[in-house]
Amino acid sequence: MTSLPMRSTQQDHDRALCVVPAPPQVDLTAAELAAGALLRALGITTEGESIRETPARIARAYAERFTAEAFQPTTFPTLEGYDELVLARSIPFRSVCEHHMLPFVGSAHAGYLPGERILGLSKLARAVGHFAARPQIQQRLTKQVADWLQATLRPAGVGVVIEAEHTCMTYRGVRALGSTTATSALLGRLRNDARSRQEFFALTRLAG
Q1: Is residue 109 among the annotated active site residues?
Q2: Rounded to whole angstroms, how far apart are CA atoms 168 and 179?
Q3: Is 13 annotated as catalytic?
Q4: How far is CA 131 from CA 64, 107, 155, in A?
Q5: Which of 64, 69, 98, 116 is catalytic?
Q6: Which residues contact 127 (CB under 8 A, 6 or more apart)?
Q7: What is the pLDDT of residues 119-162, one digit of tens each?
Q8: pTM attached to this predicted model
């Protein structure tokens, strides 16, 4: 029996890395009933004309917020021997804190030292938005973006910095208005080489 030769192309590789979320199991009717029950349990009537549809609006808003957008990574050969830092700065994002279900918003700075291939620039922003779609904590979000870059490109180094304002900290609890939280994830040379790490952090600071 003769076996057919295996054929591997860059398109096959990119297709395998396509970020496709599992379809969320959304029951809008149940979510609407639950939202109405929560409002009434908090002493908020849902009988007035302006608020009657609010439970349905809440259900639709959260369903939309928690649906991650699939995307296909696009990579290209690294030409001219380019091996310097590629950095996308100030990528805006919004997510929801999984502890209080309150928003946190901010910007991400994501970069890498190229290996054999480079990534289409828009895909850096798409990766951040994809992983921010589900209830999150900032530390996990930072690491997920960094790990995805590492798995997709196998670069010489990866760096991700995220700065965000958490409404669970600014609008409740300590009410520390204006405070922000910064997290970072470094892999490869950006973690192990002091000069590369210093360059990365210097460039991300310029974004502010």
Answers
A1: no
A2: 11
A3: no
A4: 14, 13, 20
A5: 98
A6: 19, 71, 110, 145, 148, 149
A7: 999 999 999 999 999 999 999 999 999 999 999 999 999 999 99
A8: 0.85
